Amino acid sequence: MKYPFDHFVEEAGRFHVHLTEAQLMQFERFYDLMIEKNRVMNLTSITEFEEVIEKHFLDSIALAKVRDLGERLSVMDVGTGAGFPGIPLKIVFPELAVTLSDSLNKRILFLREVIEELNLRGIEAVHGRAEDLARMEEYRERFDLTLSRAVANLSTLSEYCLPFVKVGGQFISYKSDGCGAEAEDAKNAIRLLGGELAAVEKFRLMESGRAFVIIDKKRATAKKYPRKAGTPSRLPLS
C-alpha cells in the first residue's frame, strides 16, 4: 500500500474495529477516487490523507462505539455527500445493507463509481431530496438505522431522517460534543415525528470533541411529515 495506515489501524482498534488488509486496500482506493474526483467537483474541503483518515474515515466508523453493527441491518445514509459515513461503514461491516442518498446527482454518479471500483455488494446510491424520498413507499419507514453527518439543526435533521426509520429502529446523528442544548431543544420536534431522544454519547476523536445523538423510533411518523422541500430547513419544527 502506498499510504501509511498504521495510525488508522491503531485508532480503529480503540472502537474494537479490526481492519483487514483487503479493507485497507478498499479505503486506499476510495481515497484515491475521492481526491481524483475532487479536482473537478466539490466533494470535500478535506483532502490531506491524515486529515481524511481522522475526519472522514475514523469519524464514520466511530459509530461502532455506540451501536452493534455486526448484524445485517438496513441502513439509510441521508445527505451522504462524498459517501460518509455510509461507504466506510460498508467497508468495515460488509453485512450492512446500505442506501446512500444525496440531492446532487453528480455525487451519486461518483458514489456509484466507488461502489463498482471497490466491488461492494448490498449497497446502492439514490438521487433525491430527503423530503421526496421519505414519501416513497420503498424508503418510508423501511430502515433499521438512519444516519446523517449533515450539518443542520437537529430538529431539521430529524424531520429529514425519522420518516425513513421503521418503528423500533433508530436515527443517529453525528454531531460535535457541544450539541447538548440543541438536542434538548429538538425533543418536542422529535416527539412529533414519532421519536424519542435516547442518549447523547460524547467522545474524543483525536483533538476533536464528537457526539452521537441517538433517537429511538417509537411510533409511525405522521403522513404530513416531512413537509414539502425546503420547509424543514427554513422553518424547523419546535
Supply the key terms:
238 residues; alpha/beta; Rossmann fold; seven-stranded mixed β-sheet; 10 helices; 23% strand; globular
Give the mean pLDDT.
96
3D shape? globular
Q: What is the share of helical residues?
A: 25-40%
Give, in order, the helices and strands.
Answer: HHHEHEHEHEHEHHEEH
Q: Treating each run of at least 4 consecutive H or I residues as one helix, how many helices?
A: 10
Approximately how much beta-strand content do the residues carry?
15-25%
Q: Strands of the biggest beta sheet: in what spatial order?
A: 3-2-1-4-5-7-6
Per CATH, what is the topology of the domain at 70-234? Answer: Rossmann fold
The CATH architecture term of the domain at 70-234 is 3-Layer(aba) Sandwich
> Class of the domain at 70-234 in CATH?
Alpha Beta
Structural summary, described in words:
With 238 residues, the protein is α/β, with parallel strands linked by helices. Strand 1 (74-78), helix 4 and strand 2 form a beta-alpha-beta unit. The protein has a 7-stranded mixed β-sheet with strand order 3-2-1-4-5-7-6, sandwiched between helices. The model has no long low-confidence stretch (mean pLDDT 96). The chain has a domain at 70-234: 3-Layer(aba) Sandwich (Rossmann fold). It is globular and about 50 Å long. 37% of the residues lie in helices and 23% in strands.
